Amino acid sequence: MLLAVHFPSWLKPWIIPGLPFRWYGLMYLVAFGAAWLLYRAQVRERNFPITDDELSGLFFWGILSLVLGARIFATLVYETSSIYREKPWLVLWPFQDGRFTGLSGMSYHGGVIGGILAILMYSARHHFDYREIGDMFAASIPLGYTAGRIGNFINAELYGRITAGPLGMIFPGAKLPISDGWVREMAEQTGIAAVNGYVNLPRHPSQLYEALFEGIVLWVIIWFLRNKKPFKGFLIGIYLAGYGLFRFFIEYFREPDAELGYRITLVKTDLPPAIFSSPFNFSTGQVFCFAMILLGLVWLLIASKLPDREPVRIYSAKKETAQDKKKERRQRRKLRKKLG
Length: 340
Known about the structure:
Elements: E1 5-6, H1 23-46, H2 52-77, H3 83-86, E2 95-96, E3 99-100, H4 108-126, H5 130-138, H6 141-154, E4 169-170, E5 175-177, H7 181-190, E6 198-200, H8 206-225, H9 234-250, E7 262-265, E8 281-283, H10 284-303, H11 322-339
Parallel strand pairs: 1-4
Antiparallel strand pairs: 2-3, 5-6, 7-8
């Protein structure tokens, strides 16, 4: 355990002490900014026929739907108390005990659902091909996700399971009572001494694992494939299945939510979820990730057989005049009237 390191003491959740500005919130802005830049780069690279106003609207509604989906899903799935059922307005209330806390508790999988709904509705409203809109999002989102997980790391939250290996990190809020037999056994194994009846055992820095594989590695793969995709919608399927696959395995290193534990237990164990017990016991995150993998694979099969599936990689360049824009708007209005 000589290689286990302490969480950096100088790393604090807040940017300026005493003010409600936190690194986690800033990481959200970095994530959205990175996704915006990568999306706009693809639009320009392909001469994709979308105006700046339409692109701004797409991102506005996409981000709003993502945040709402992530927050609502988190309160439905991960909150075990009845507080949100009794007081549903607290789902979007960013204050606790008179203090601004932001929206604490967001679910990635809920954000995906919200984002997909936004893409479908905005594409239908503005007559875009949702497959192309979705493909460009698939090549833009993962790198922003890296920023979000770095925010979790700065908050010293969502850390991993206890480990006696060389990749362990000692997080400040992960103390356990030495009176528990398994804690005492792990303390002896790792050589960590108890202080005031509690011991801080090394954990996997699973936030960094996720930032690397679900963010950087997945983005590199999809970005490389963006101009090589065999059909429209291909990148959507790769993103869903790829993210689900990476996170499914990383969840073995991440501690499940204490209140929820395992959702599926195929091998009975007396060990707590903080210690890896069996590859056949699955957390909530793994259940949703398995569903993402299946959804991604099924979508790839469906998208490969849809009509007009051939990818339009580069649209022909055309210098658009003010007159062209007016004409296009009139045509779109006429089409909308016909569609009702």
